[in-house]
Write a structure and sequence with these properties.
The complex is a heterodimer.
Chain A: H1 2-19, E1 28-32, H2 55-73, E2 101-105, E3 109-114, E4 119-124, E5 142-148, E6 151-157, E7 175-184, E8 187-195, E9 204-212, E10 229-231, E11 237-239
Parallel strand pairs in A: 4-5
Antiparallel strand pairs in A: 1-2, 1-9, 2-3, 3-4, 5-6, 6-7, 7-8, 8-9, 10-11
Chain B: H1 10-13, E1 41-51, E2 58-64, E3 70-76, H2 80-84, E4 98-105, E5 112-119, E6 125-127
Parallel strand pairs in B: 3-5
Antiparallel strand pairs in B: 1-2, 1-4, 2-3, 4-5, 5-6
Classes of the chains: A alpha+beta, B mainly beta.
């Protein structure tokens, strides 16, 4: 009898595993969760890792940041791609201001739609990653995913070097690895690691925290058809005013 | 699929409570350096158009200056998505509406600005959502 009871107990972890066998469903609209007043600090995104660029990339990056700061002091913003309404791409699109992202999950594919700029990425769950030389460099590259328990691990390659996270340089062989999981029923974390040995001394990791939006939230369209910002001949962002 | 009997510990991924609120900086369409966020001007005037557009919405308004001369102003707002989260609708304003706008003016002195607060014809007061984005983190050696 005692032995039987022990045998039963031994099965408990397996039974628990079976209960958790189905991957979690991320389907829904997720707003950026930044904490703030009234927020639960334990669900905030952890701090990013240090960004350590190789010296030859660090120097121009720092110089550009110094220029940006000097321009800001003058009340000016230096040109950047988003001021021209060029999409953000991977990984930036996962957290743009307070714009939500929508996950649509099926067994074979997870589609992620960002409200800002209506950006779309597709994560294939039923096929292997391609060779880098077979992926046309672009804004979203090619993403494949797999489940590790309740964590979705997404591998992305093929992001072209002009598509940057806040101007951080990268090579064509940058690899982005995301570990996406629910840390609470309505809180999703996307831990994003940028691995690029040609440019970075060590991988750079940051996390985006999301909170589920109300169930009746409907994604808002975003077509950039009234961009009044333009870049002048000195590379400064200006605003067109409608004078009479 | 690998079955995991034990779900990963929540605490492993959870941040320390004392961390700064913005672990990752917000990115927006553009920064607000062109506007003087320390200054506020009140415009009382007539809407000539309300543009519910991306990447930003605009209120075009005719408002008299302190000498009574009518001047035209272009006032920038957030995008429709951001504005909807602050209670705006595409039909919140129409040409001909009398409104009171509190704005942060352009540093250049041109007749333009960034909306801080609007009082609609029905007396409803609406704000303009979040505005200032923090700078990117410095690279570390």
């Amino acid at each position: 009898m005692k032995t039987q009871a022990l045998t039963c107990l031994a099965w408990l972890p397996i039974a628990a595993a079976l209960l958790h066998a189905a991957p979690p469903d991320f389907t829904g609209v997720w707003g950026i969760y930044r904490g703030g007043p009234g927020a639960d600090p334990q669900f905030r995104a952890p701090a990013p890792s240090p960004l350590v660029l190789k010296p030859e990339y660090d120097k121009p990056y720092q110089a550009r940041r110094t220029e940006e700061a000097a321009a800001a002091k003058r009340g000016e913003q230096l040109a950047n791609t988003s001021a021209e309404c060029i999409p953000y791409g991977v990984p930036t699109m996962m957290s743009v201001a307070i714009y939500p992202v929508e996950f649509i999950q099926t067994a074979k594919q997870i589609t992620i739609i960002a409200e800002a700029f209506s950006e779309v990425r597709r994560v294939y769950l039923d096929r292997p990653q391609a060779k880098l030389e077979d992926v046309a460099p672009g804004y979203y590259g090619r993403s494949v995913g797999r489940w590790e328990g309740d964590t979705l691990v997404v591998d992305t390659i093929g992001i072209k070097p002009t598509v940057t996270l806040r101007g951080i340089p990268h090579s064509a062989s940058m690899r982005v690895t995301e570990r996406i999981r629910l840390v609470a029923p309505d809180i999703l974390h996307d831990q994003i690691t940028i691995d690029d040995p040609a440019v970075l001394e060590k991988p750079y990791t940051y996390t985006v925290a999301y909170k589920r939006m109300p169930a009746d939230y409907e994604m808002v369209e975003f077509v950039c058809d009234n961009n009044r910002e333009y870049i002048d001949s000195n590379g400064i962002v200006r605003l067109k005013l409608h004078d009479k | 699929m690998i079955l995991h009997a034990i779900r990963p510990k929540l605490c492993a991924a959870l941040a320390a409570a004392g961390m700064f609120a913005l672990a990752f900086p917000a990115l927006a369409h553009h920064s607000f350096t062109m506007f003087d966020m320390s200054k506020r001007i009140t415009l009382v005037g007539t809407v000539t158009s309300f543009e519910w557009t991306n990447p930003h919405s605009y209120i075009e308004i005719d408002a008299p200056d302190e000498k009574g001369a009518v001047k035209h102003w272009s006032i920038e707002l957030g995008s429709p998505s951001i504005l909807m989260q602050s209670g705006w609708k595409f039909s919140s304003l129409h040409a001909g509406d009398k409104v009171t706008l509190i704005i942060n003016p352009m540093k250049s002195g041109q007749n333009g600005g960034f909306l801080s607060q609007a009082t609609l014809p029905d007396g409803k007061v609406l704000t303009n959502g979040p505005r200032q984005e923090p700078p990117p983190p410095p690279a570390q050696k």
